[in-house]
Design brief:
Blueprint: E1 2-6, E2 12-17, E3 36-43, E4 52-53, E5 57-60
Antiparallel strand pairs: 1-2, 1-3, 3-4, 3-5
Length: 61
């Protein structure tokens, strides 16, 4: 899974790669610059996974 953030031009860039454990969970810290950042999680297509993304969340620092 990839933690992505939205750039000022509106495109998505990968901020961090996260691996899931055997129960399908992941705990991580996402570090963003000051201000407001839009972030989402993206799942690549892989055996056993359907490609998709989470709801976009706004993170304020």
């Amino acid at each position: 899974m990839n933690l992505q953030r939205r750039t000022s031009s509106g495109s998505w860039v990968n901020a961090k790669r996260v691996k899931l454990n055997a129960r399908g969970e992941a705990r991580f810290l996402g570090r963003f610059s000051r201000g407001r950042t839009q972030a989402r999680m993206w799942v690549n297509s892989a055996p056993g996974y359907i490609p998709g993304f989470s709801v976009t969340k706004t993170v304020s620092r």
